[in-house]
């Protein structure tokens, strides 16, 4: 059984996912940018749909 994860680099996206009841598996400092953190979530179709919903929501609010 594979344990697939996805790395989120945007804190707002990570916050949106946690608000929508997705559990963060981990949080680490970004090796490329010391001022940024990366957020690790378990990858799933439901998580991908929530990410797409965030993108659509963000586009409507900012536009």
Helix content: 40-55%
Lateral arrangement of strands in the main beta sheet: 1-3-2
Radius of gyration: 12 Å
**Main β sheet profile:** 3 strands, antiparallel
Q: How many E-type strands?
A: 3
> Could you give the distance between the termini?
42 Å
Uncertain ranges: none
Mean pLDDT: 91
The helix/strand series, from N terminus to C terminus, equals EHEEH
Principal-axis shape equals globular
The number of helical segments is 2
Strand content: 25-35%
Describe the structure.
The protein has 63 residues and is an alpha+beta fold. It has helices spanning 11-19, 45-62, and strands at 5-8, 24-29, 37-42. The chain has a 3-stranded antiparallel beta sheet with strand order 1-3-2, with helices on one face. Strand 2 and strand 3 form a beta hairpin. It starts with a strand and ends with a helix.
What's the quick description here?
Helix content is 43%, strand content 25%. The chain has helices at 11-19, 45-62; strands at 5-8, 24-29, 37-42.
Which labels suit this protein?
63 residues, alpha+beta, 3-stranded antiparallel β-sheet, 2 helices
Helix-strand layout with pairing:
Elements: E1 5-8, H1 11-19, E2 24-29, E3 37-42, H2 45-62
Antiparallel strand pairs: 1-3, 2-3
């Amino acid at each position: 059984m594979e344990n697939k994860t996805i790395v989120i680099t945007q804190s707002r996206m990570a916050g949106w996912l946690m608000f929508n009841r997705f559990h963060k598996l981990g949080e680490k400092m970004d090796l490329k940018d010391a001022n940024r953190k990366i957020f690790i979530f378990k990858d799933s179709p439901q998580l991908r749909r929530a990410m797409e919903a965030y993108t659509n929501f963000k586009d409507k609010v900012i536009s």
